[in-house]
């Protein structure tokens, strides 16, 4: 028996089907930016968003540990200001060791953050 082509498009694989819908709220500026970019690219708004998602690079937020290190650096900045005031009042030679100690601590924290 001869099989006839039933017509229509071939079935999509499960990974190719678009079965999820996401609703996004945008400001007026964002919305018109989306419209303009999709027209400029000659693709639909949905396709522009899909492509943007696939090509986007996500940067991790600051971890609690990194936030703690940043707070330490802020405190050390205050110490540096105090050292600078002392150096202006007493002369640099009296404050040099204090400054070098703090500078080494700051270097260690910055290296830990990198």
Note the topology.
Blueprint: H1 28-41, H2 45-55, H3 64-90, H4 92-113
3D structure, described in words:
This protein is mainly α and about 110 residues long. It folds into two domains: about 20-60; about 65-110. It is about 65% helix and about 0% strand. The protein contains four helices and no strands. It has helices at about 30-40, 45-55, 65-90, 90-114. The chain is elongated. The N and C termini lie far apart (about 70 Å). The model has no long low-confidence stretch (mean pLDDT about 85).
End-to-end Cα distance: 71 Å
| Low-pLDDT regions | none
Strand content: under 5%
Question: Order of SSEs, N→C?
Answer: HHHH
Q: Mean of the pLDDT scores? A: 86
Inertia-based shape: elongated
For the record, the count of structural domains works out to 2
Protein name: Mobilization protein
Pfam family, one: NikA-like
Organism: Draconibacterium sediminis
Briefly, what is this?
With 114 residues, the chain is mainly α.
């Amino acid at each position: 028996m001869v099989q006839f082509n039933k017509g229509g498009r071939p079935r999509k694989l499960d990974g190719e089907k678009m079965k999820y819908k996401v609703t996004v709220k945008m400001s007026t500026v964002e919305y018109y930016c989306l419209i303009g970019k999709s027209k400029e690219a000659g693709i639909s708004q949905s396709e522009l968003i899909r492509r943007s998602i696939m090509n986007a690079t996500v940067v991790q937020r600051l971890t609690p540990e990194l936030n703690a290190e940043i707070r330490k650096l802020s405190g050390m900045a205050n110490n540096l200001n105090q050292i600078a005031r002392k150096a202006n009042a007493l002369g640099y030679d009296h404050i040099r060791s204090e400054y070098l100690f703090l500078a080494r601590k700051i270097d260690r924290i910055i290296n830990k953050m990198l």
